[in-house]
Specification:
Number of helices: 1
Strand order of the largest sheet: 1-2-3-5-4
Order of helices and strands: EEEEEH
Shape: globular
Distance between the termini: 23 Å
Strand content: over 45%
Number of strands: 5
Largest sheet: 5 strands, mixed, barrel
Length: about 80
Protein backbone atom coordinates (compact mmCIF):
# COMPACT_ATOMS: atom_id res chain seq x y z
CA UNK A 1 0.00 0.00 0.00
CA UNK A 2 1.16 3.52 -0.76
CA UNK A 3 3.19 2.33 -3.73
CA UNK A 4 3.04 4.61 -6.77
CA UNK A 5 2.51 2.88 -10.10
CA UNK A 6 2.15 3.94 -13.71
CA UNK A 7 -1.07 2.74 -15.28
CA UNK A 8 -3.41 3.06 -18.22
CA UNK A 9 -7.10 3.93 -18.02
CA UNK A 10 -9.08 0.97 -19.40
CA UNK A 11 -12.70 1.83 -18.59
CA UNK A 12 -14.78 4.79 -17.44
CA UNK A 13 -17.75 4.14 -15.14
CA UNK A 14 -20.10 6.65 -13.46
CA UNK A 15 -18.27 6.51 -10.10
CA UNK A 16 -14.66 6.26 -11.29
CA UNK A 17 -12.24 4.58 -13.68
CA UNK A 18 -10.43 1.28 -13.96
CA UNK A 19 -6.67 1.48 -14.41
CA UNK A 20 -4.43 -1.38 -15.51
CA UNK A 21 -1.23 -1.30 -13.44
CA UNK A 22 0.25 -4.62 -14.65
CA UNK A 23 -0.66 -7.44 -17.03
CA UNK A 24 -4.00 -8.79 -15.81
CA UNK A 25 -4.14 -6.44 -12.82
CA UNK A 26 -6.61 -3.57 -12.74
CA UNK A 27 -7.77 -1.36 -9.91
CA UNK A 28 -10.48 1.21 -9.34
CA UNK A 29 -9.82 4.90 -8.93
CA UNK A 30 -12.97 6.28 -7.28
CA UNK A 31 -14.33 9.56 -8.60
CA UNK A 32 -13.26 11.44 -5.45
CA UNK A 33 -9.68 10.20 -5.95
CA UNK A 34 -9.37 11.33 -9.59
CA UNK A 35 -8.59 15.00 -9.00
CA UNK A 36 -7.97 17.54 -6.26
CA UNK A 37 -11.06 19.50 -7.31
CA UNK A 38 -14.57 17.96 -7.40
CA UNK A 39 -15.31 16.03 -10.60
CA UNK A 40 -18.82 15.26 -11.87
CA UNK A 41 -17.85 12.60 -14.40
CA UNK A 42 -14.58 10.74 -15.04
CA UNK A 43 -14.44 11.97 -18.65
CA UNK A 44 -13.94 15.50 -17.28
CA UNK A 45 -10.34 14.57 -16.37
CA UNK A 46 -9.33 11.31 -18.12
CA UNK A 47 -10.14 9.22 -21.19
CA UNK A 48 -9.69 5.52 -21.97
CA UNK A 49 -6.07 5.01 -22.98
CA UNK A 50 -4.66 7.83 -20.84
CA UNK A 51 -1.50 6.99 -18.93
CA UNK A 52 -1.63 8.17 -15.32
CA UNK A 53 0.27 7.63 -12.08
CA UNK A 54 -1.72 6.12 -9.23
CA UNK A 55 -1.05 5.10 -5.64
CA UNK A 56 -2.32 1.88 -4.09
CA UNK A 57 -4.68 2.78 -1.23
CA UNK A 58 -6.24 -0.59 -0.43
CA UNK A 59 -5.68 -4.25 -1.28
CA UNK A 60 -8.52 -6.69 -0.68
CA UNK A 61 -7.05 -10.10 -1.48
CA UNK A 62 -10.21 -11.96 -0.48
CA UNK A 63 -12.43 -10.03 -2.89
CA UNK A 64 -9.56 -9.56 -5.38
CA UNK A 65 -9.95 -5.78 -5.41
CA UNK A 66 -7.38 -3.03 -5.69
CA UNK A 67 -8.26 0.55 -4.71
CA UNK A 68 -6.17 3.28 -6.30
CA UNK A 69 -5.81 7.05 -6.00
CA UNK A 70 -4.71 9.45 -8.71
CA UNK A 71 -4.59 12.29 -6.15
CA UNK A 72 -2.04 10.44 -4.02
CA UNK A 73 -0.20 9.22 -7.12
CA UNK A 74 0.83 12.69 -8.20
CA UNK A 75 0.20 16.04 -6.60
CA UNK A 76 0.71 17.68 -10.00
CA UNK A 77 -2.38 16.06 -11.54
CA UNK A 78 -5.44 18.31 -11.96
Amino acid sequence: MGQKLPGQVTKLIPFGVFVQVADGIEGLVHLRELAWTPVKTPSDVVQVGDKITVAVTEIDRERRRLALSRRQGSSADV
